[in-house]
């Protein structure tokens, strides 16, 4: 069985972020960036993982993503939103084509 959680991270960056020069237009230090993804936890592997445990795992992963894959020293004002509601997850996945959606069913 799989447990799913939809997660969004919101953050700002400073000019020392490793990927700052790759972002066009350059974001200001007050511009809020965001990234959303769905995480799946296989209960055969993770056991009876709680929502809090899923959120803690996802927070670390999303902060690393926001940091450009290196660290999270240059991300600030970090905020998260989570949902385990299947309607929210489906609404997010509906933005993608069927080939991508079918990987997560």
Outline the structure in words.
The chain has helices at residues 43-46, 51-66, 86-93, 98-102; strands at 2-13, 33-42, 75-83. It has a three-stranded antiparallel β-sheet with strand order 2-1-3, with helices on both faces. It has one domain (2-102). The protein starts with a strand and ends with a helix. It is of the alpha+beta class and 105 residues long. It has four helices and three strands.
The parts where pLDDT drops under 50 for at least 5 residues are none
Characterize the biggest β-sheet. 3 strands, antiparallel
Give average pLDDT, whole number. 87
**Strand portion:** 25-35%
Count of all domains: 1
User: What share of residues is helical?
Assistant: 25-40%
The chain-level structural class is alpha+beta
Shape summary: globular
Order of strands across the widest beta sheet? 2-1-3
User: What is the distance, rounded to the nearest whole angstrom, between the alpha carbons of the first and last residues?
Assistant: 11 Å
Q: Outline of this structure?
A:
31% of the residues lie in helices and 30% in strands. It is α+β, with helices and mostly antiparallel strands.
Protein topology:
Layout lengths: L1 E12 L19 E10 H4 L4 H16 L8 E9 L2 H8 L4 H5 L3
Antiparallel strand pairs: 1-2, 1-3
Task: Spell out the key features of this protein.
3 strands; 4 helices; 3-stranded antiparallel β-sheet; globular; alpha+beta; 105 residues
